[in-house]
Write a structure and sequence with these properties.
The structure holds two protein chains of two kinds. Chain A is mainly alpha-helical. Helices cover 70% and strands 3% of the residues of chain A. In chain A, helix 4 packs antiparallel against helix 5, helix 5 runs antiparallel to helix 6 and helix 9 packs antiparallel against helix 12. In chain A, 54% of the residues are buried. Chain B has a domain of 227 residues. Chain B contains 20 helices and two strands. Chain B has a two-stranded antiparallel ribbon with strand order 1-2. In chain B, a hairpin with a 4-residue loop joins strand 1 and strand 2. The longest helix of chain B has 55 residues. The interface between A and B is large, with 56 and 67 residues.
């Protein structure tokens, strides 16, 4: 076991190496790139399964392994360790990420077969998977944050994969920057936690930051009002999760991310990226609940409300969307809200159970949507599709399974069990009944929009310009992953039923006991009856409204337009959240940029120019003074001197005759004077 | 003590070859370039060999050369090397060889160019190793002269004005600094940095300096703050710190690509180097009185430069502001150390901040030089235009270049796994421990950095291809090796920061032990 943990670093590093190598391969090396990526991820999957089995064998023990990364200060605090952990949480996430990722990789072989940048695509996919695998097995917050950012990078590259499309380029940038808002707050939480507790390892044989000693110290420190430091840091970390997992109000990037190729959407929405936020909260759960016994911690209340509101908000928006992928995108946001709600009210097991089941059926739905889009010449508008069940039977059936799982159709589908667990936990939540009703409303809306989509896409007759002749079922390389995911969407539910809560037990380190009687307890079925009623109601309304419309061969008006005034546009426009950002944050930043630039160009450069001008003026002035006053006087004196000198020089011009003439003249004068004086 | 004079050799090598190249190189440009590159290689080898030759892990000054020069004025020939100096020597060589690689064919008087680059190198080597004020100041100014001519002779059409601006700005700062040091000298009779630092640690520096000015009715505090501002001005212009940055954007934009690389890659580091080497040890006490104000200026630098970069259309100006932004974090960390004391921030926070500053210097030097090279390449390929709107969709035409520049861009915005992250992480860790409010307020800077860098990438590489008449050819072997090597170093340092930290950390501990906290 210990030696096994030492080698676990291979799980994320293999896909990363594959990414690095295929990044260097020439564009024509398509087979190499895909083979490397799929091979390495398959190997990671095998290793993950072995890790999972190892944890299972040891009864959920936690095993760590790490190394000293670098030293930046004295002592243990000044040493940064990177480390990874093998425990039930990381093991189940590893299996899910590598497994679902592998299926998506294989599917991409078919979906991207005609793309010119095929090699690059697999390079980015591998980076994505590797970063996510590193994230889930990291035992250090810094290591987790690094992988977290790499996941963001990979999503940026993949959303903008079709870079010629301006919309794709904009969506990629939007995704990176929106999530970075959350990431930076997370970063500050990380710095605070590390700086305060002196450790960023989650578990470290008693001195890690999720272990009792550190948690007690964090709880003791009060920061704002009665919020303890552990709660504040938890809130900062939650901000990161809000960005990554598309919670309100940072959800805006996720629907736009549909600009990427469909396998990417599947990867982002199921196994990687958005799962990261929920996983982070699950990982640091001990920090979130640390505090006095029996009190619901404030950060959990924030999480529950944000999650509940997101669940309903996104489900409502999904109702009125027309793009098959956009509906799924909003459905993901809504389901992520459920996960947060489950984590906040029911604990790690509840949230992670839904995360795992959702990964399977959401990947299935996206890949199914991809299959539809692939078959119908890139048509994504559900009003222009229709009647596809006849030509695409495999896609139809598997999509149906995914849809039933997502709506939480009773008993047979995984989504039912995980959703029930969340609703149960929410119902038992002592703080408020609000999140429960929000969750229930979400269930109704989910059933409705999925029925609407299903009926319009697969039911009825073809509408729009998609001609029946060109529609074909996708090749096996795409349908086999669909079938596998469909079976998983059924099976995964049975590991967490009330009768046999194996997953809950596994995650909490207890043995699960099979007890059928628990399944029939009044508290189980009482609630289940209500939620089932919501599901049936939603599906019924959907069928009634759309069955007839779908059957007619022409595009009809959406019955939603008959909703009370203003509601339908509000839903269609996603409650104007994007527009609100477009008219507040974006212009504010542009304004700030404008003024900083103006300041530089006019004020600082102006001052500089002023100084230069002053210098020049002073220089010119002193030049003039020099020339007019100092020089002029000097010059005049010089001129006078020169003139006099010139005159004087006449006396000494070197002409001997002249000297002699002067001498002669002088002699004559002297002689005549003497003569004149002597005669007196 | 009298070991081999490594550092003198290191300084004389580029200085003599530079002068020789300028004197006799006319018409032999192929040879002068080879000589310059050879000297770079040799210097680089010497610097790497020094890690084996002297014990940089001890933290104290190594390879010391000390001779009396003008004893009556306290002037000594005093060289010494420690982790800080070593990292910057390495950076100088790296950036200089990159600049020579990017220079390609310099239009006129190529021998002069090569010679000036070598002289600049010598000036920087001297600056990063001298330990006596006069000795150091000589090299500080000496490096300015080749830089001035490099901007002046090979820049854009506004190069005359701009080079003069650059020269005068820096000179004004230097004169202020000189005055500050003369005041210190008048009080202490000491010019050596280690001795001055020791005086400061014992708390005797400022009383001695103030003694001289007692007759004027000035208190110790006033004298100390006056000297602090004078000395800081010299460094702040060089880094630069707002509002003393007005010379920078136009200088970086007007200078030719290799010169911009040298300016942003190493010359801007002289200021931060001075802050760490001279300012912190000597001014720890007065810094404690004013650090919130200075940290405020650093924050302003970080935020305003990032925002201003967002408004630029000229690629070089974007990078120029990005440089100001990145070095703003260094300023912030240095000033936050003013808060260090018995109450706030443990020694680990202080060490993290300082190690972060040194790493950030190296990382920024490498990344910014790479980015300037990339922009220069774009400018050349686009017929001399480098407005943001004149590019688009280049990823299809030049995928390899796009990959290299993309990596450098993400290194610049601090993506983990590349070099930029470690420095920023350590700076934030340190600053948060010392002055939490400053770390909070600096955070938007990181966000806006991402916004403008990604906008640049989006405009240049994404979207439909813009046809400007040029046919784009992907990078040739020279850029491929040069940029490729730079990117490899970025990845290497991102994954293995201990490579530099093993030398900087002992220095930082040594420095902190000598501070009056």
């Amino acid at each position: 076991m210990e030696t096994w943990v030492q080698w676990m670093w291979l799980i994320p590093v293999l896909p990363m190496v594959a990414a690095g190598v295929s990044g260097l391969l020439p564009r024509t090396a398509r087979g190499w790139s895909a083979g490397l990526s799929i091979g390495s991820l398959a190997l990671s999957f095998v290793l993950s399964v072995i890790s999972f089995a190892a944890v299972w064998q040891s009864g959920g023990e936690r095993h760590l392994y790490g190394f000293r990364w670098f030293q930046f200060g004295p002592g243990a605090f000044g040493t940064l360790w990177l480390s990874w952990v093998l425990d039930p949480l990381s093991a189940s996430m590893l299996v899910m990420v590598s497994g679902v990722g592998l299926l998506i990789f294989i599917y991409s072989l078919g979906y991207m077969a005609h793309d010119a940048n095929f090699t690059r695509f697999f390079c980015f996919l591998s980076l994505f998977a590797g970063a996510m695998l590193g994230l889930v097995m990291s035992n250090s917050l810094v290591g987790l944050f690094m992988c977290w950012e790499l996941v963001g990078l990979a999503s940026y590259l993949l959303i903008g994969f079709w870079f010629q499309k301006p919309a794709a380029a904009a969506a990629a940038k939007k995704a990176f920057i929106t999530t970075r808002v959350g990431d930076l707050v997370f970063f500050l939480g990380l710095v605070w936690l590390f700086g305060n507790s002196g450790t960023q390892l989650f578990y470290d044989n008693g001195s890690g930051c999720l272990e009792a000693a550190t948690l007690n110290a964090l709880v003791q420190q009060k920061v704002w009002w009665d919020w303890s430091l552990s709660q504040v840091i938890g809130l900062l970390l939650f901000a990161g999760a809000v960005g990554k997992s598309g919670q309100l109000p940072l959800h805006v990037w996720l629907p736009d991310a549909m600009e990427g190729p469909t396998p990417v959407s599947a990867l982002i929405h199921a196994a990687t990226m958005v799962a990261a936020g929920v996983f982070l909260m699950a990982r640091v759960y001990p920090l979130l609940v640390a505090g006095p016994e029996g009190v619901v911690q404030p950060v959990l209340m924030v999480m529950a409300w944000v999650g509940g509101l997101t669940a309903v908000f996104a489900a409502a928006v999904a109702v009125a969307q027309d793009d098959i992928k956009r509906i799924l995108a909003y459905s993901t946001i809504s389901q992520l809200g459920y996960m947060m709600l489950g984590l906040a009210t029911g604990g790690v097991a509840v949230g992670v159970f839904h995360l795992l089941t959702h990964a399977c059926f959401k990947a299935l739905l996206f890949l199914g949507a991809g299959s539809v889009i692939h078959a119908c010449s890139e048509e994504q508008n559900i009003w222009r599709l229709g009647g596809l069940r006849r030509w695409m039977p495999v896609t139809y059936v598997t999509y149906g399974v995914g849809m039933l799982a997502l709506t939480g159709f009773p008993v047979l589908f995984s989504g039912f069990w995980s959703k029930e667990a969340i609703l149960h936990a929410t119902h038992a939540w002592p703080v408020s009944a609000g999140p429960f009703w929000l969750g229930l409303a979400g269930v109704f809306l989910t059933a409705f929009y999925m029925t609407r989509q299903m009926v319009l896409v697969f039911g009825g007759t073809p509408r729009g310009n998609v001609t029946s002749g060109s529609i074909h079922e996708s090749p096996p390389v795409m349908t086999v992953p669909l079938i596998v995911l469909a079976s998983l969407s059924v099976v995964t539910g049975f590991v967490g039923t009330p009768a046999w809560p194996w997953l809950q037990g596994f995650l909490e380190g207890q043995q699960a006991i099979l007890d059928w009687s628990r399944l029939f307890g009044a508290d189980v079925w009482g609630l289940a009856a209500i939620s089932c009623a919501a599901v049936f109601l939603g599906m019924g309304v959907g069928l009634v409204l759309y069955r007839r419309i779908a059957a007619e061969g022409v595009i009809q008006r959406d019955p939603l337009e008959q909703l009370p005034a203003g509601l339908c546009p509000a839903l269609r426009k996603k409650f104007w959240v994007d527009e609100a950002y477009q008219h507040s944050v974006v212009p504010a930043l542009a304004w700030l940029a404008y003024w900083c630039d103006r300041m530089d160009r006019w004020v600082w450069a102006g001052l500089m120019r002023l100084a230069a001008c002053v210098t020049l003026v002073v220089a010119r002035l002193s030049q003039n003074v020099d020339e007019a006053v100092v020089n002029a006087g000097f010059d005049r004196a010089c001129e006078g001197l020169r003139l006099q000198g010139g005159r004087l020089s006449l006396w000494q011009n070197g002409q001997v005759q002249r000297y002699l003439a002067f001498v002669g003249a002088a002699m004559a004068i002297l002689v005549s004077l003497w003569w004149w004086g002597g005669n007196r | 003590m009298h070991s081999f004079p490594w550092l003198t050799l290191l300084i004389l090598m580029p200085l003599l070859s530079g002068l020789g190249v300028m004197l006799w190189g006319a018409g032999r440009s192929r040879w002068t370039r080879r000589i310059a590159q050879g000297v770079c290689g040799l210097s680089g080898w010497t610097i790497l060999a020094l890690t084996k030759e002297v014990d940089l892990r001890s933290g104290s000054l190594q390879a010391v050369e000390r001779h009396a020069w003008i004893p009556s004025l306290g002037v000594e020939y005093y060289l010494g090397l420690d982790g800080l100096g070593w990292v910057l020597l390495l950076l100088t060589v790296v950036v200089a060889s990159m600049a020579l690689g990017a220079a390609g064919e310099v239009g006129e008087r190529p021998h002069l160019f090569d010679g000036l680059v070598l002289c600049l190198m010598a000036g920087l080597f001297g600056t990063f190793t001298a330990q006596n004020f006069v000795h150091w100041f000589l090299f500080w100014e000496l490096s300015l002269i080749p830089a001035f001519f490099l901007v002046r002779l090979w820049g854009g059409h506004r190069r005359r004005v701009v080079s003069l601006q650059f020269f005068l700005f820096t000179l004004a700062g230097s004169i202020a600094m000189l005055l500050g040091f003369l005041i210190q000298y008048a009080g202490t009779g000491q010019m050596n940095f280690p001795e001055l630092a020791q005086l400061a640690q014992q708390g005797r520096l400022w009383p001695q300096v103030a003694e001289v000015w007692k007759g004027w009715g000035w208190t110790e505090r006033e004298v100390a703050l006056g000297v602090l501002l004078a000395v800081l001005a010299g460094f702040a212009v060089k880094v630069p710190m707002m509002p003393l940055h007005a010379w920078l954007p136009s200088t970086y934009a007007e200078a030719s690509t290799p010169v911009s690389m040298l300016l942003t890659g190493v010359m801007s580091k002289m200021g931060v180097y001075g802050l760490v080497r001279i300012f912190l040890p000597l001014f720890q006490e007065p810094l404690r009185w004013v650090w919130p104000w200075l940290a405020g200026l650093a924050l302003w630098t970080v935020i305003a430069s990032a925002c201003a970069a967002l408004a630029q259309r000229d690629l070089k100006r974007i990078l120029a502001y990005s440089s100001v932004n990145h070095l703003g974090y260094c300023l912030l960390a240095v000033f936050a150390l003013g808060a260090a004391g018995p109450v706030s921030g443990s020694i680990v926070h202080q060490a993290a901040a300082l190690n972060g500053v040194i790493l950030q210097m190296f990382n920024h030097g490498l990344t910014a030089a790479t980015l300037f090279w990339c922009v220069g390449w774009l400018e050349k390929g686009n017929g001399g235009f480098r407005e943001l709107d004149q590019f688009g969709g280049l990823r299809a035409a030049v995928p390899i270049f796009c990959g290299l520049m993309g990596m450098a861009t993400f290194a610049s915005l601090g993506l983990p796994g590349l070099n930029g992250f470690i420095g920023e992480f350590l700076i934030f860790l340190g600053v948060f421990g010392l002055a939490p409010w400053a770390a909070w307020l600096a955070l938007p800077g990181l966000l806006v950095t991402a916004v403008f860098l990604l906008t640049m990438v989006q405009r240049v590489f994404y979207g439909p291809m813009k046809t400007t008449g040029q046919r784009w050819m992907d990078v040739d072997w020279r850029e491929r090796t040069g940029l490729g090597a730079a990117v490899i170093v970025m990845v290497l340092l991102g994954l293995w920061p201990q490579l530099l930290l093993q030398f900087t950390h002992p220095f930082v501990m040594h420095l902190l032990a000598g501070l009056r906290l």
